[in-house]
Amino acid sequence: MAVSTGGAALADDAGIRVREVGSFHIGGSPITLSGAEPREAYVAEGQPPARVDPNGDFETGQVYVQYVRLVRPRSRLPLLMWHGGGLTGACFESTPDGRAGWQQRFLASGLDVYLADGFGGGRASWQRYPEISLAEPLFRTKRELWELFRVGPAGSYATDAARRRPYADTRFPVASFEALVRQTVPRFRTYDRSTQAGYDALVVKVGPSVILTHSAAGPLGFAATIAAPDHVRAHVAIEPSGAPDPSTVDLDRLRRIPHLIIWGDHLDADDSWGDLYASTRRFHDALRKAGGRSTWIDLPTMGHRGNSHMIMMDANSHQVAHLIDSWLKKNAR
Known about the structure:
alpha/beta; Rossmann fold; 8-stranded mixed β-sheet; two-stranded antiparallel ribbon; 7 helices
């Protein structure tokens, strides 16, 4: 399927008329903790510690969703946006340097938008550790974010911002790197199953819709599509962290569901990116061979060089949003 990058990029604000803004939590299940030792806990500055009993009944595993519904959406298919690991739905709201994010751009294009915070991130809460969570949360350093998100090559980060050496052609707004760091959250690697259940429930609740995923949410999006092919009308995967082994999937269930897979630049920076790229390519090729509809885009081959892993934040994010929107108009039904 051909995808054009011509034409004007999506506007920041095309006279957006909003009908409703709201939120809800979905998924999760009750859990009872017992047998944990009471402890002394800090209450407030100047106050003595309080004796706290951690045992009791809790709800756990819920996903948070914020939605914006338009007065007259151009499509009956809302856009569900799912963030990557260590991030929240905020990554789609605004760019680190203050430009309109993809939430606003797709609203301006006429789509209702649902932003999710996966379990353990943002407003989705998390479990007690170590009593319930199976592993401690991971906190990414600035160096890890700089290199993993491909703002600069290995060894190019420095504590002193003036000494950092980003890629010469980077599209990421380097001067606002700290703004990206501030919105990252601890990552709980044992929460994927709960987040998947919440996202699957979201798809059923919303009904026919389009899923847009980034990074670690990519595999969750593929799984949600396989689980509910009558509800998911298209899946846009931005640099997904892998895809299902096609030999384990009934590809006939997916033949009618168009997929768009987009990759940025400098993927040779780390072997892990090459592995994720290859596994996703195997799925794409197998789906097409089975008669499915899948579009693969390497942005550098289309003239967009220097994109980081955070494509929705890069200087050309509006152009990539326009590319996605044009594809959806042609393919999402």
